[in-house]
Design a protein that fits this description.
heterodimer; A: alpha+beta; Arc Repressor Mutant, subunit A; 3 strands; B: mainly alpha; three-stranded antiparallel β-sheet
Chain lengths: ~110, ~325
C-alpha cells in the first residue's frame, strides 16, 4: 500500500516531467554542455538528475530541437548543446502553452 | 581511480548500441570528471577509492544508466498493456479449457495412470508460459511499431459486445426497454472461449491430430462391444466441416462480438448442417449396435432398445434446437443486433 508520501512523490515527478523539458530548452537558448546546463538549472532552482538530463538532451537532439558539437574546453572534450531553429520555434509554442495552462490553473489553486 | 571510471564506462558501453556507444561514453566520462572535480572541491582533497565508488554508485548502475539511453523504456507501454492483459486472460482461459477437457477424457476412459494427469498439468504450465511469452512478444512488437496497431485504432462502438440484461446500474435509458438480452441462444464471451477450445480439441481429434482412446470408451463389461454404423465413419468430414463452422462462430464471438450478422450467418449455416446431419443419421439407424463375440447380442436387446430410443430423442431435440436457432439467428441476421 503506497503511503501519502509515495503518492505525492509520484504525482510530483509526473508534474515535473514536462516542465523539465521546458526548462532545459529555455536554458539552451545559449550554448551549454551537460554539466554547465545542470548547474545553470540548479542556480534558478530547477534540480534535475544527471541520469535523466543526458538521455533527455540526446532525445531532444534526435528530435531536431537541439544541435550539438564536440569542443575542447579546460583541456577536456565536451559536448555543447544549443537550441536549433526548430527548437526555438517549439520552445516559443511550448512557452505559450505553459502560460495558458498557468493562467487557467492559477485561479483554481 | 581512473581504473574504476574505465571499468564503469566499459560496463555501460557494453550495453549501448554500437552506433552511439563512443559518443555517449565520452559524454558520460566528462560528466563523471566534472562530478569528481566538484566533489574534490567540496572536500578540499583528492578523492579516494571509496569516494570514487560512492560517486559512481550515485550516478547509477551501468544497466540502469545504459537503459536510459535506449529508445524504449518499457517492453509494453501503458497504451498496449490493457490489450496485452486481456489477451493473456483469454488465452489462458483457452489453454485451461484445452487442458481440462483431455484430463476429463482420460479420467472417464480410465486411462489415468497418475502420470497422465500430472503430464497434462505439466503441459498446461508449459503451454501457459509459452502462450504468455508469445502474447508478450506480439505486444512488444506493437509497442515498437513493428506491427501496425490498425484494427485497435479503428475500433467502433458498434463492434463492442451488446449490453446484457440486468445492467441497469449503467444508468442509461436506451436499453431499459430492451428485450433482446441474453436469451436461450445468446452466449457470453467466456462461453465463446469455452466453445472455441472444445471445438478446437474436437477438430484436432477428428482430424487425427489428437489421440482419443475410443476403444476404451466403447468397451463394455462382459465382453460386449459397441459398434457404430458405417455411416458414422463416412460422415467424418461433414462433421469436421460442421465443427470448423461452429469454431468460427465461437471465434467471432470472442474476437469480434459486435459482428452480430456474421455470427448469425455462421450459426444459420451450422443449424442447416446440423439438420442435414440429423436427417442422415435418422435414416441410418441403428447408429449404435451392441455386439458380443462379433454378433448382435440378443441378451442386450432391452439395452439396445433404450439406446435406440435415447438416440431418437436426441435427434428430435437436436432438430428442435436447430430449427429454433434458424429462427433466432435469422431474426438477428435481419436486425443486425
Amino acid at each position: 500500500m503506497p503511503t501519502d508520501t509515495d503518492i505525492f512523490e509520484s504525482l510530483r515527478l509526473e508534474l515535473r516531467r514536462g516542465t523539465l523539458i521546458l526548462a532545459v530548452l529555455a536554458q539552451l537558448r545559449e550554448e551549454r554542455y551537460g554539466y554547465s546546463l545542470r548547474q545553470a538549472l540548479s542556480t534558478v532552482g530547477v534540480e534535475i538528475d544527471e541520469g535523466a538530463l543526458y538521455p533527455m538532451l540526446r532525445r531532444l537532439e534526435s528530435q531536431g530541437l537541439l544541435a550539438s558539437e564536440w569542443r575542447e574546453e579546460d583541456r577536456r572534450k565536451k559536448r555543447f548543446y544549443q537550441l536549433s531553429a526548430e527548437g526555438r520555434a517549439v520552445l516559443a509554442r511550448l512557452a505559450d502553452e505553459w502560460r495558458a495552462i498557468n493562467a487557467a490553473l492559477e485561479p483554481l489553486l | 581511480m581512473s581504473d574504476l571510471i574505465d571499468r564503469y564506462l566499459a560496463a555501460v558501453a557494453a550495453l549501448l548500441p554500437k552506433s552511439s556507444r563512443q559518443d555517449i561514453v565520452a559524454e558520460l566520462r566528462d560528466l563523471i570528471l566534472n562530478r569528481v572535480e566538484e566533489k574534490e572541491e567540496a572536500l578540499g582533497r583528492p578523492l579516494g577509492k571509496a569516494d570514487m565508488e560512492a560517486l559512481l554508485r550515485e550516478i547509477g548502475h551501468p544497466i540502469a544508466v545504459a537503459g536510459r539511453y535506449g529508445p524504449h523504456r518499457a517492453l509494453i507501454g501503458p497504451e498496449i498493456y490493457p490489450f496485452w492483459l486481456l489477451a493473456v486472460k483469454v488465452l489462458l482461459a483457452i489453454v485451461a479449457v484445452a487442458t481440462v477437457v483431455p484430463a476429463v477424457i482420460v479420467m472417464i476412459t480410465g486411462h489415468d495412470e497418475g502420470h497422465r494427469i500430472s503430464g497434462i498439468l505439466s503441459d498446461f504450465i508449459s503451454s501457459a508460459l509459452t502462450t504468455v511469452g508469445m502474447a508478450t512478444v506480439v505486444a512488444a512488437a506493437f509497442e515498437r511499431g513493428w506491427l501496425k496497431v490498425g484494427d485497435l485504432a479503428n475500433w467502433k462502438v458498434s463492434e463492442l459486445p451488446r449490453v446484457p440484461e440486468g445492467m441497469d446500474w449503467l444508468g442509461g435509458s436506451s436499453w431499459s426497454g430492451w428485450t433482446g438480452g441474453k436469451g436461450w441462444f445468446a452466449k457470453s464471451r467466456f462461453e465463446g472461449v469455452f466453445e472455441l477450445a472444445v471445438m478446437v480439441l474436437f477438430i484436432a481429434w477428428l482430424s487425427g491430430g489428437l489421440p482419443f482412446p475410443m476403444e476404451r470408451l466403447v468397451h463394455a463389461p462382459d465382453g460386449a462391444w459397441i459398434t457404430f454404423s458405417p455411416v458414422v465413419l463416412s460422415l467424418r468430414w461433414p462433421i469436421l466441416g460442421l465443427a470448423v463452422l461452429q469454431a468460427l462462430s465461437a471465434l467471432i464471438l470472442v474476437v469480434k462480438p459486435g459482428w452480430v450478422r456474421a455470427r448469425a450467418a455462421t450459426e444459420i449455416l451450422c443449424a442447416l448442417a446440423g439438420l442435414a446431419l440429423s436427417a442422415v443419421l435418422w435414416h441410418a439407424q441403428p447408429i449404435i449396435t451392441l455386439i458380443a463375440d462379433g454378433q448382435p447380442a440378443p441378451e442386450f436387446a432391452e439395452l439396445q432398445r433404450v439406446f435406440d430410443m435415447g438416440f431418437q430423442i436426441a435427434i428430435v431435440v437436436a432438430v428442435a434446437i436447430n430449427v429454433t436457432k434458424l429462427f433466432v439467428d435469422g431474426w438477428r441476421l435481419v436486425r443486425g443486433k
